[in-house]
Amino acid sequence: MPVFKTPFNGYSVKFSPFYENQVAVATAQNFGILGNGRVHVLQLGPTVTERAAFDTADGVYDVCWSESHDSLIVAAVADGSLKIYDLSLPAAANPIRSLHEHARECHGVDFNTVRKDSFLSASWDDTVKLWTVDRPASVRTFKEHAYCVYAAAWNPRHADVFASASGDCTARIWDVREPGSTMILPAHEFEILACDWNKYDDCIIATASVDKSIKVWDVRNYRVPLAVLNGHGYAVRKVKFSPHRGSMIASCSYDMSVCLWDYMVEDALIGRYDHHTEFAVGVDMSVLVEGLLASTGWDELVYVWQHGTDPRAP
Amino acid sequence: MATPPSDSPPSSAAGKPPNPVSVEPSNGGNPDTKVEAVKESSPTSVFVNTEPIREEQVQNAMKFLSHPKVRGSPVMYRRSFLERKGLTKEEIDEAFRRVPDSMTDASTTQPAVSSQDGQIKSSSYVQQQPPTQVLQSAAVAPVGSASKIGMLSQFHWYHAILAVGFLAASGAGTAVFLKKSVVPRLKSWIRKVASEEDEEGLIKKNDAKPSVAEEAAAAAKAAAVAAADVARASQEMLTTKREEKRCFEELLSMLNAQVHEMKSMSNSIQKLESGQSVNGRIALDEQDNHRFSGTSSRQPYTNGKTDTESRSVRSTSPPVSAEPPHPKSYMEIMSMIQRGEKPSNIREINDAPPNPNQPLTNPRAAPRPKPWEVSQPQNTSVNTYPSQESSNGTTYHFQDNQPNGDDGVPWWQKKNVRITEVETSEEHNFGSSNMAAANDRPPQRSWVPPQPPPVVIPEAATAIRQPKKAAIQTEPMNDDQFLARSGDAIDELQKITRFSETAGGSVEASSMVPDTSATEIQREDNGSYLET
Question: In which broad location class does this protein mainly occur, judging by the first location in its UniProt entry (chain A) (predicted)?
Fold first, then answer.
């Protein structure tokens, strides 16, 4: 299985929605505390090769691919800016855009899979901003959270609905046509670090928290979670629903493991990978190849492997 | 367009119930909210709260908001607390509405710096009376008790008291000082006068007095000299102690440095032996430290940012008792930054776009459909953002025949049934696997016109189309022929029924010319074509 060593600590990894063998990685120097950052674009094959790399002045906390353009990448940078890179242009022409409106670190970025032309940025300045690639300024700002917003995720079926996860212990559901949030989920007693929608049931959302658990909610009945997934030893950093199986969830945690869950099953934990030697901070499941997983962590390694196999096997 | 801050008066759109029939806020609702609710409630989105307001939650919130300690906190924190406790927006707004002045901060919140002066002015005429009364007792007591978190106006009140108190104290002090300085002058003046008046008669007394005074003065001088000597001695002792301390500290720091170096060396040796590359960075870092490191221009920025960074980084570590074990170099870097040092491996990078107006290139590949879109239908179209609303509006209106239909069944799931027929029939016609079909099909994702209502009464449908056939045969018939003809018609009707209900067309259609044309018209609607 391909492994790639990044010079900086890994923060996020995302598969390309256009090419099965391309992966973007967001990294930050000095664990993201203070230092430069780099965005890598890797080509998977018998070995992993680096197709492109872009340096940033500050750490990169998240990266996402455009859904409409096969060579555009958006990076969320710790200085509050969003950088857009075009892989079809030479490195000297990149980045093609720098969108700087957030007052604090940009921690999450997500591209709309339905409308395919807009994306969200989640920032530690308590706001979520909506952008399109062709506009230099944000289209909307959503300011309601009382603390850092760690992640924002578009609903896979509704072009206008998205969810945000925040350190104020709530997850909120928004509709871009409404000025404020439409639902408030007091999901956890501690900070919520990530959220994701079920691709096959657009009313189901999972939240991952510092309290080591992942909770799965149905927004039609949000007072009681559908499932509480315990098993991680420390805070859960990212959560992702599988694009191929409606009840499968992948998660990564500060306990250095990547876990796979099926929340509809009594014994929900169906897989556990302990390949990282530091915090596992980024995980993704490929949309184009069923069962293909990628993860990265503070041990500066990026793994890509098929579910059921050993990530570290050569 | 920025959304209003959460502590502004509740926005009516946020309080809109999705269902005009459901319970409105208990006070009857403003006319504004009602108007907007009716206007905007047409799509029954499931992503909105449909719960009615829970009165006990509102009561609890009111108790919370009426608490004196809560009064002093910013409105944002009060809202956030209630949200975390599970109250909906409507309930929170209702509680704020009921507790009269809960929307105003007792303190001024962050952005309203300029209004502080206004607040002082408005409150000053109220507070002028208390300070005069509290003058004497003002003293130093209020200083420690004034908590700075959010109590700015009260802080200014106390500030006024303190200022007046300080003035009074200083006045008293100067008075005392003056008295102390005036008394000796008076005394000396009295002495002079006395000596002038009683020069002859009181020579002895005068002599006695000056002598007493002289003795006193001499004693005082001696005491002063002794005190000065004592002071000098104590100062010398202090300085020697300080020097000793410095020496000790230097020794300690040198020892620490040596210990540190030894530790790092042993670490690097261990890591070299074990062959791990990760922790070898520590050795490299040690070497880097000796190199000339960065510019000072980043220092103010980094310091400001490191404060926020360290706060934010610390905030992501769990507040639960078990802290995840951070890597050793992470702790080193954190301690470096807390000391104000900058890690030396940071480069100055200019990551600004070289051409901010770089035109966007054209994509080289078409978007690929998602696995969940292929197997289950989509219900929205891919339009650019500005036109989204209009197309969505038409989509909702057209296909949502049953507003607020079943409980708990969202409207798009009902609608899905019809689109499933469209999609599956398309796939069936293409006759290939899912993925292949997905790849071959152009990424149209355009708004698919809904299928005409399913044929409920096939006979009626065909009867409507029958007139062509009937028109062709206008010969008069007697009863028997009519019965026979109607029997044939019934058989044909049955054939047609079967034919019209099958998904793919059949070649039999060609046998009935007018009907095939009718059914072809029907089939054209779903964009497929008959394949043999």
Answer: cytoplasm
Distance CA B458, CA B522 (A): 13
pLDDT digits (tens, 9 = 90+) for A179-215: 999 999 999 999 999 999 999 999 999 999 999 999 9
Each residue's pLDDT tens digit, B358-415: 888 999 999 999 999 875 544 444 444 444 444 443 333 333 344 444 444 433 333 3
pLDDT band at A283 (very low <50, low <70, confident <90, very high): very high
Q: Which pLDDT value is given to residue B76?
A: 87
Which one is predicted more confidently, B311 or A260?
A260
Query: Among residues 86-125 of chain A, which lie with CB inside 8 Å of chain B?
Result: 86, 88-89, 92-98, 104-105, 113-118, 124
| Residue of B337, B395, B329, B343 whose CA lies nearest to B45 | B395
What size, in residues, is chain A? 314
In whole angstroms, give the CA distance from residue A286 to residue A81: 27
Q: Is B200 in a helix, a strand, or coil?
A: coil
Q: Any chain A CB within 8 A of the CB of B218?
A: no
The secondary structure of residue B5, as a DSSP letter, is P
Answer yes or no: is pLDDT of A262 > 70. yes
Whether chain A has a CB inside 8 Å of the CB on B39: the answer is no
B343 touches chain A (CB under 8 A): yes
pLDDT, tens digit, 9 for 90 and up, residues B262-293: 888 888 888 777 665 444 343 344 444 433 33
Residue of B47, B371, B378 with shortest CB distance to A287: B371
What is the token pair recorded at A174?
């928004």
Asked if residue A6 lies in contact with residue A20, where contact means CB atoms within 8 angstroms, the answer is: no
Q: Work out the pLDDT band at B45, boundaries 50, 70, 90.
A: confident
Q: Which of A283, A10, A1, A16 is nearest to A151 (CA)?
A: A283
Give how far B284 is from chain A: nearest CA, Å.
13
Going from the C-alpha of A261 to that of each of A196, A233, A291, B245, the distances in angstroms are 14, 15, 13, 60
Q: Which residues of A touch B306 (CB under 8 A)?
A: 33-34
Closest residue in chain B to residue A94, using alpha carbons only: B353
pLDDT of B460 higher than 60: yes
Those of residues 78-107 in B touching chain A at CB distance below 8 A are 79-80, 83-86, 88-89
State CA B426 to chain mean position distance: 45
Residue showing tokens 């790639």: A4
Q: Distance (Å, rounded) from C-alpha A24 to C-alpha A17? A: 11
- The more confidently predicted of residues A166 and B309 is A166
Burial class (CB in 10 A: 0-12, 13-18, 19+), B260: exposed
Domain covering A3-306 in this structure, CATH number: 2.130.10.10
Cis check for the bond before A95: say yes or no (omega within 30 of 0): yes
Average pLDDT over residues B331-339: 89
Q: By C-alpha distance, which of A127, A157, A149 is closest to A140?
A: A127
Q: Which residue has the higher pLDDT, A221 or B462?
A: A221
Pick the residue of B372, B390, B404, B447 with the most A CBs within 10 A to test the interface with A by mutation: B372
What are the residue ranges spanned by the domains of chain A? 3-306
